[in-house]
Design goal:
The chain is of the alpha/beta class. It has two helices and ten strands. Helix content is 21%, strand content 39%.
Length: 136
């Protein structure tokens, strides 16, 4: 009798170990659909925060403009994708960067804006690739 019970317990334990764990597979799928966060600061060449600066985030079928807080900080939750972030402020050149936001990650992107030269008409349209900086 003990042998039969021991065999039954062994088979139950072994069988469950061999079967795929649907719960962990489902949770991995749910995690990948979670948004990521894009966060950063807008400062001048002396690292002083720029009050009233705006950051425009554009992507495929997505466009949102943020105003930085009193300390020059911004953040936004975004679906995993590639975006272009453009920082603007009165008296400063416009600066754009490409960025990739990953699910469940904070991607840091900081802008250092240079003063606009008197009489300068066209904004700086050159895009700079960013290194991925993830904060967990």
């Amino acid at each position: 009798m003990r042998c039969i019970i021991a065999t039954a317990v062994f088979l139950l334990v072994s069988g469950s170990a061999l079967m795929p764990n649907k719960t962990s597979a489902q949770s991995r799928h749910v995690q990948s659909s979670e948004p990521g966060k894009l966060a950063g600061m807008v400062v001048d060449l002396n690292d002083a925060r720029i009050n009233g600066a705006k950051v425009l985030i554009t992507g495929k079928d997505f466009k949102r403009e943020l105003v930085v807080d009193d300390e020059g900080f911004f953040q936004i939750d975004l679906p995993e994708a590639r975006y272009v972030a453009t920082a603007t402020a009165n008296g400063f050149r416009t600066f754009s960067r490409r960025v990739y936001v990953k699910s469940n990650r904070v991607t840091a992107i900081n802008f250092k804006l240079s003063p606009k030269v008197t009489g300068e008409a066209a904004p700086n349209k050159r895009l700079k690739r960013t290194r991925r900086q993830h904060i967990s």
